């Protein structure tokens, strides 16, 4: 391609991620299913994170906001458990979200040592925009993305049923 060593091309601006992947392992027909899934996931995540950056959001922030939207106000420590991150990591994520007005934190009335986190109206709107951005990432793909989501959900459920809860928890934590 450019005559540069492979390790230099990986970080070079002249090759996009997809071009890089395809240039050095073009025969996707031979890829194991796991590699196809993980490569597709990384490409989608990368494109989505690029779009989220414009809203001063990260994928981690969106996950926290989704948990709050689904469960309502929750303590910071419970959020860390649900999302499977350390309390310190959750604190940093919440500080960024709070700085942009997406969440609010108040001291718990029942336990003054803990903070209760709530999704703000701005956070709800932003969460909707983040979902739209994810759809935009997949829009140019000539695949029925609704069907793909259903198939992936089914795949995760079925494979999770074949493993012990501890193994599933470890796998989900690694994915997060």
Q: Give me the side-by-side strand order of the main sheet.
A: 1-3-2
Shape: globular
Number of helices: 9
- Can you give the helix content as a percent range? 55-70%
CATH architecture of one domain: Orthogonal Bundle
Please give the oligomerization state of what you see. Answer: single chain
How large is the radius of gyration?
19 Å
Number of strands: 3
Alpha carbon gap, first and last residue: 35 Å
Q: What is the fold-level CATH name, i.e. the topology of one domain?
A: Arc Repressor Mutant, subunit A
Low-confidence stretches: 1-15
According to CATH, what is the class of one domain?
Mainly Alpha
Strand content: 5-15%
User: pLDDT average, as an integer?
Assistant: 83
The biggest beta sheet, please?
A: 3 strands, antiparallel
Strand-pairing-aware structural class: mainly alpha
Give the SSE order as H and E letters: HHHHEHHEEHHH
The H-level CATH homologous superfamily of one domain, spelled out, is Winged helix-like DNA-binding domain superfamily/Winged helix DNA-binding domain
How would you describe this structure in keywords?
disordered N terminus; mainly alpha; 176 residues; Arc Repressor Mutant, subunit A; 9 helices; 3-stranded antiparallel β-sheet; 65% helix
Describe the secondary-structure layout.
Blueprint: H1 6-11, H2 17-24, H3 33-53, H4 59-71, E1 74-75, H5 76-83, H6 87-99, E2 103-107, E3 115-119, H7 121-138, H8 145-161, H9 165-175
Antiparallel strand pairs: 1-3, 2-3
Helix pairs in contact: 3-7, 4-7, 5-6
